[in-house]
Amino acid sequence: MSDKGKARRAAYEAQQEKKAKKIVNWIFIVLVLLAILFVLYTFNIMQ
């Protein structure tokens, strides 16, 4: 593979890794928010 192709592939892989980390962070944030909402809902039911 040429150097140009290797550079393009490395840039693509770096971009994909960055997107994957962003998605994982969003999933984590959503799960935390859902947990907080569940706790609030549970306390509301108990009253």
Report on this structure:
This protein is mainly alpha-helical. It is 94% helix and 0% strand. It is built from 1 helix and no strands. The protein has one helix at 3-46. The model has no long low-confidence stretch (mean pLDDT 94).
Bin the strand percentage: under 5%
Number of separate strands: 0
How widely separated are the two ends?
A: 67 Å
Specify the helix fraction band.
over 70%
Task: Please summarize the sheet with the most strands.
Answer: none
Mean pLDDT: 94
Shape: rod-shaped
Radius of gyration: 20 Å
| Derived structural class | mainly alpha
Enumerate how many helices there are, as a single number.
1
Uncertain residue ranges: none
Task: Please trace the helix and strand order, writing H or E for each element.
Answer: H
Ordered list of secondary-structure elements with their pairings:
Layout: H1 3-46
Feature tags:
single chain; mainly alpha; 94% helix; 47 residues
Summarize the structure.
This protein is an all-alpha fold. It has one helix at 3-46. The mean pLDDT is 94.
